[in-house]
User: Fold these one by one.
Assistant:
Number 1:
Amino acid sequence: MGMMTTNQATVTRIEETVAARSNSAFLSGTQPQADTLHFKIEKRAMRAVVEGLVNELHARFLISVGTDTPTFIPTTTSTIPRIS
């Protein structure tokens, strides 16, 4: 397999989409490898950014962390009812 090349126009479109969708929640962005972009975005904007990448740019391979909002967090005092 050959080495990946970077299409700078595509990188720019991705960066613009992330910036537009994240508003003031964009923290930083880097390109550690030719085929990899890393963005740090505040949690509150993560869903909007991912939706923009998928819907507007047809992105397929995304990894995001910290996007779930649990509705129940068990504590040490929580009890689970026994089913007889």
Number 2:
Amino acid sequence: MVMLAWPSRRVLRTAIEGRGWKAGIIPARRSVRRTLAILFATALVSVFGATACGGVQENLQKRAQEEVEKGRQKVEQRVQEERKKAEKKVQEKMKEGQKRVEEEVRKAQ
């Protein structure tokens, strides 16, 4: 591959046999433009792909937070139910104790 420098354009000359002199000339600007276009397209795809992944990650975080919140609510409900049960048992025991005390007072009289 031979590189020729002309005042207005750089041109790459490749050896293509049997096709004539002009068939073997590839303008350097065109290949640079293609390369830049490919690089630009790749950059855009990677940027938009990253933002799309970021949206998915946000959705996953929201779901995880919702699941944690549901778990907290269930635990709080269970704690409240157990607390109510314990209070009922305490009240029943207190009533039984009061009845016993009253019966003992009646027997003593």
Number 3:
Amino acid sequence: MNDKDMYEYEQFVRAREELSKANDAVTQLLHTDPKFVINALRNEHRTFQQDFTRLCAEWLRTCAQDDYGTDARNEASHEVGKIATAAHDAAHDGCGIGLPRI
């Protein structure tokens, strides 16, 4: 691994650790008050909202895949992913609709 790759990997590891901590806090909020999180997102920068929506859409598409491992804890995510992906594709003639970063 060259120096640039090592630097990028270290940056990724640090960001992953920070994301993990933030995820714990957001997960706790979602369990206790999901509307708080939704309302907070409504007031975020529009680009952040678009980035978050893109992440959610890609996550649902991933959940919909046949090779997405499921058990009782996430079977509903798999089903919702399949429904959302099928509805999106049907509404846009299967061509998809981008969520650009502007």
Number 4:
Amino acid sequence: MVTRDTNIVFLTANLAANAAATWGSGNNKPFTFTAQYGGVDNSNTYTWTITSCQVHAYNDTTIENIRISGAAVNTTTIPAALGNGSIYGNYRNLKIGRGIERNRSQY
């Protein structure tokens, strides 16, 4: 892992995010959210599911080397960024980096 962030959140189990389980505005520090760290690779083992929430960045955030399951949306009827399963940068530096995998046919 090449990241130089001090704050690293390492995925060690399946995480089904909802309004109560997603990071909040009180966690206002830059960080990297990943499933690879310290020689351990959980990127093919665990999934971050965001189908029932909207994820908001409250500081600079990097998301990398992780499998994401999001909401399947019909982009012909609504813009994809308006519903659950969306990730908002909120004018922060949001990097969705290398090693991102989608779960099933959702994107």
